[in-house]
Structure formats: structure tokens, C-alpha cells
Amino acid sequence: MSIKETLIEKLKNKNARIAILGLGYVGLPLAVVFGEAGFHVTGVDPDKRKIAALVEGRSYIPDVKTEAVEKLVKAGRFNATTDFSVLKDMDAVSICVPTPLRQTGDPDMSFIISAMDELAKYMHKGMVVVLESTTYPGTTRELLLPKLGVDNGLKAGEDWFLAFSPERVDPGREDFTTINTPKVMGGITEACGEVATAWYEGAVNIVHQVSTAEAAEMSKLLENTFRMINIGLVNELAIMCERLGVDVWEVIDAAASKPFGFMKFTPGPGLGGHCIPIDPLYLSWKMKSFNYNARFIELASEINTNMPRYVVSRIMEGLNERGKPLKGSKALVLGAAYKPDIDDVRESPSLDVIGLLRQKGALVEYHDPYIPNIHHEYDGWKMDSVKDLMKAVKEADVVIIITNHKVYDYEAIIENAKFIFDSRNATRFAKSGKNHEKVERL
Ligand code: SAJ
């Protein structure tokens, strides 16, 4: 039997030994899915705290139950280590490491490169490697193929197999998880795609195979660029509607009454999270090397990035109408998380709004039930979430709703506040919320 046939057989009968590099919100759920499918899984991560927790059978990812980890550890089907040398005994390796942006706005490939450099030491015939980290088209072929294969004298598609499969984890989502979200898979060669598909089909419900790694890399960027651009569109619509004296929320709800050919997005104070504001910039960055300007991405990014400043200008106008300068006014920001009902503050527009308010001399406090304290990475300031929410609401000259957490009692907030700027239309659910004289909306 060929190396390919032997490996496919090991994968199909679950004898193949699996390693997951990077045990974060993507890697740990994936490790559990492979373990529960019957594979033996080794998790590898340089973070000693993560490994110590997993060795004890404890999960640190909200979407992964400790019982699931404990059961696999006890069954001897999952172990975790900081020691990359275990890779020499592995048949299949999935790389799930972060791909953030540098402060310059360029891709930060350092996590992929360090995982790749470690793996390169242990590459051998009969291995399949899948990269899951969202990245620019060409990464798998231009970075991983030479370093892991060529430099080790291994021929991809014959001696070893390399593919890309974009992660589609939406933290906190319960309806679509790692096992039931279709998985796109694209190989460096046809044989690579065949082997990687055979591997993942042993664990997830649906694998959607494409012809190349580049097609798989690009499909992920389309998914998140689509979102970013449409959010930029409705953000610009909010600005236009304000000039026209039209309620943008009413307009969007009306358009959404169309049962086909329309997809609802809502305006907000800006784009947060580690996916939507970042992934499209990997594509526009790559296109620069082809002397191509990705205009839609650049424009949408410009609009979205400007939303915190637009929100602050609207707050200044609102205070001005009430005879109050922003400078010296008490501003209470509700919500630091980048989206409702989660504890993730990465790239949150709240931080930008708070920074701008502070720059303009407002006396700023914030409240977020999920985030006890925040700090600004570049400006260096730190704040704690206020302890007594209603006291802070009563004392504030303006209450600014940035993240519409479900736990907030918007009726009580309206009752106790002097002036509310609602950037999420969160107060629509309050009895007196609609068109309340205290409330201004984006
Ligand atoms: N946002 C708006 N208006 C909208 C939708 C989102 O302003 O209509 C803002 C949010 O407030 C947030 C940012 O955009 O600040 C991103 O929100 P998101 O709903 O896209 O949530 P994310 O960042 O968690 O995106 C993830 C992505 N998942 C993956 O990349 C695997 C994305 O592809 C999913 O579509 C999204 O979750 C989801 O649908 O929940």
C-alpha cells in the first residue's frame, strides 16, 4: 500500500494519533471532537496554565464542558503537554493558533511561524497537517509547504499531506458547534485534500471539500468580509438617516420585512472581536502585493473605524442641547464587551468610545457585568466596572449604551437617567423606551 493509502486507513479506523497545536477557543473544542470520535488526541500548547488545567481534566473554555475533558483524560484518549517533541509520534496535526494584526495593521504571522518551526523539527513520512488559523490566501502553500515539506525532503501529496480548513467557531453559540458546522477543506494537492477530508470526516458531520488550499483560505475571508462590509453599509446608512431625520432602525426593520433577497445587519458604535475587524484586512494586505486596492474592504473599514468618533460627536450634540458641555460632564458607558452577553473585550469599540470621551475631558465610568476591569493597551488607562449601577445611572449626565447585554433593566435605566445615548437600539424593548424624550439613538 502507498503512504497515502496506509494513512487513510489509519485515519478511517481511528488508529491515527492526532495532535492539536494551540488549545484556545478553536483548538480545545476540536481536540474534544476528535477525542469523542474515537481518536487518541494530544493537545500541545506552550501555555503551562492551560496544560496544567487539562492534565487535571479541567476546561478553561466556556464552550467546552469540564466533564467532556475529564472523561477523555480518564479514558486515556486525551493528554496535553507543552513538549512539542511528542509530534514525532503523530500521524495527523491540526494547527489552531491566533492570527491577530500588528499595531501597524499588518498580519501578525508570528504564532503560525513559531508553531510551524516547532512542527518542522518532527515532520516524518506519513503525516497529514491541517492549518485552521484564518490567514491570507497563499499562506499554506507559501509558508508551510516549504518549511514543513521541502526543507525536510518530503514531497507533499506523496510522503505527507497538507491542507487548509478555516475555523468556524463562534464562541458562545450553541446551535452550531465544531461538530455540526460544515467544515471547508482544501489541499495543496488533490491527494492532500483527499487525506485531510478522510481525517475530518471521521469527526465532524460535514466536510465541504474544495480544490485548493487557496480556495479554502479565501472562502473564510469572504465569510467575514461579507459581514464587515454589510455592517459598514448599515453604519453609513445610520449617518445618512440622521442627516435625513429618518429613524434608521425603523428603515432596517422595514427592509427586513422582505422575506427574500435581504439580510439584516444593524448599526453600532464600531466593530469589535478578533474576527470581523481583522480577517478582511488579511485579504486587503495580500492584495497589495498584487498592486490591487481592495476598495470595498478599505472603505468599510474606514466607516466602521470611524463609528466610535461619530458616536461621541452625537453625544456632544445631545449634551449641548441640554446645556451641558462634554468637558466636565459625567458619562457612564454601559457595556465593554464587543458584543452582547459575552466577556470578550478584544477590539471592543467601547474602549475607543471611552478613550475619546476621556480625551475630551468627560468624567467617564463604565459598567459591564461580564468584565470587572478594562485597560487601554496603547493609551495605558485602567478602569473598574462601577459597583452600584443605578447610583451611577442617576449621577451621570449621559448614560451611553454601547453593548446591549440582556441582563440590563432598560426600563429602570430610562427611569433613572437624565439623558441616554443608545447606540444599539437596546431601549426599544422598554415599555417607555420608544421615542422617550430622554433617549437618543444612533
Ligand atoms: N456587529 C454590528 N452589526 C451587526 C453585526 C455585528 O455592529 O449587524 C458588530 C458586533 O457588535 C461586533 C462585531 O460586529 O462588535 C462582530 O460581531 P459578529 O456578530 O460578527 O461576531 P463575531 O466577531 O463573534 O463573529 C463570529 C464570526 N465567526 C467566525 O469567524 C468563525 C462570524 O463569522 C460569525 O458570522 C459571527 O461570529 C456570528 O454570526 O455570530
What does this structure look like?
The protein is α/β, with parallel strands linked by helices and 442 residues long. The protein folds into two domains: 3-211, Rossmann fold (3-Layer(aba) Sandwich), CATH 3.40.50; 226-441, Rossmann fold. The protein has helices spanning 3-12, 27-36, 48-55, 66-74, 110-120, 139-149, 190-200, 213-244, 248-255, 279-288, 295-321, 349-359, 389-395, 410-416; strands spanning 17-21, 40-44, 78-81, 92-95, 127-131, 160-164, 183-187, 207-210, 330-334, 363-367, 373-375, 382-384, 398-401, 420-422, 439-441. The strands form three sheets. Strands 3-2-1-4-5-6-7-8 form an eight-stranded mixed β-sheet, sandwiched between helices. Strands 10-9-13-14-15 form a five-stranded parallel β-sheet, with helices on both faces. The protein is elongated and about 80 Å long. The chain starts with a helix and ends with a strand. The model has no long low-confidence stretch (mean pLDDT 96). Residues 167-170, 223-224, 227, 231, 265-266, 268, 271-273, 275-276, 338-339 line the site of ligand SAJ.
Main pleated-sheet profile: 8 strands, mixed
Ligands and ions found: ligand SAJ
Beta percentage is: 5-15%
- Unreliable runs, pLDDT <50, ≥5 residues? none
Strand order of the largest sheet: 3-2-1-4-5-6-7-8
Task: Using the coordinates above, name the CATH class of the largest domain.
Answer: Alpha Beta
Number of domains: 2
Main structural class = alpha/beta
Stated plainly, the CATH topology of the largest domain is called Rossmann fold
> What is the distance, rounded to the nearest whole angstrom, between the alpha carbons of the first and last residues?
65 Å
Q: What is the H/E order?
A: HEHEHHEEHEHEEHEHHHHEHEEEHEHEE
